[in-house]
Amino acid sequence: MSNERTSTPDAGPPDSGEAAVTPVSVGTPPTPGRQASSPPLGEVPPPDDQNAEERVVQELAEVQKESTRLRDQLLRTAADFDNFRKRSRRDAEDAQRRGRESAVKDLLPVFDNLERATLHADSAPDAKSVADGLRIVLKQFLDTLEKMGIRRVATVGTAFDPSVHEAIQHVDSTEPAGMIVTEVQPGYAMGDHLLRAALVIVSKGKQDEQTH
User: Fold this and answer.
1) Element (H, E) at 79
2) 196 backbone dihedrals φ, ψ, rounded to 5°
């Protein structure tokens, strides 16, 4: 028996035509401290991105809803203001009309008596009776104005007041300077509001007082 040893040939170097394959660990976690990149287009985004997108859509819908509500409220406010303006104008016009109607109704009896006095003037026995009738009508007119809150501005015998009087002439007079001696046209006031200034003639004082 021969002592032959069966030897296994040594593995030689790899064939130069075959590339070396680097082993890849499956399921290796990412390196700590590095964030995963965004998923490629077409892939489903992670749950956190989906929630963020849903929140943005929901907030946008709420903003649009609030904008619509505010717009409707603004339109209603504008319509209410326009109606209020028209109603206020109608109320003011109605108040003016009622005021004129009330004034005319109060003055109609005065005009009625004045018309009667004019019709009977020709058949009156004398001028005195006509004058007496006219004085009665005048008093009725002044009483009616007083009931309406309208007063006649005092003139003769009072001091000239430029706020209610308008002087059309200054004359020498025995009255002290600045006193009203003649009323040319009466003035009227309603409360503190002057309706018409009285036209008056004002005294310049005595002649000898002016020379001194």
Assistant:
1) helix 47-119
2) -155, 135
In terms of C-beta density within 10 A (0-12 exposed, 13-18 middle, 19 or more buried), how is residue 199 classed? Answer: middle
Residue type at 97?
Answer: R
Q: Which residue has the tokens 């326009």?
A: 82
Residue 123 lies in a domain: yes
- Distance CA(95)–CA(86), nearest Å, equals 14
The total domain count for the chain is 2
**Closest to 189 (Cα-Cα) out of 149, 142, 141:** 149
Query: 39 lies in a domain?
Result: no
Q: What is the pLDDT of residues 103-141, one digit of tens each?
A: 888 889 998 988 888 887 777 778 888 888 888 999 999
Q: Are residues 123 and 141 in the same domain?
A: yes
Q: Indicate the pTM of the whole model.
A: 0.53
Q: Domain ends where: 110, 129, 148?
A: 148
Q: Give residue 138's domain range.
A: 51-148
Does some domain include residue 26? no
- pLDDT at site 9: 46
From CA 50, how far away is CA 54, in angstroms rounded? 6
Q: Tokens for 129, please give them.
A: 């009776």
Residue where a domain terminates, one of 148, 163, 191: 148
103 plus 135 within the same structural domain:
yes
* Dihedral sign for Cα atoms in the order 79, 84, 85, 86: positive
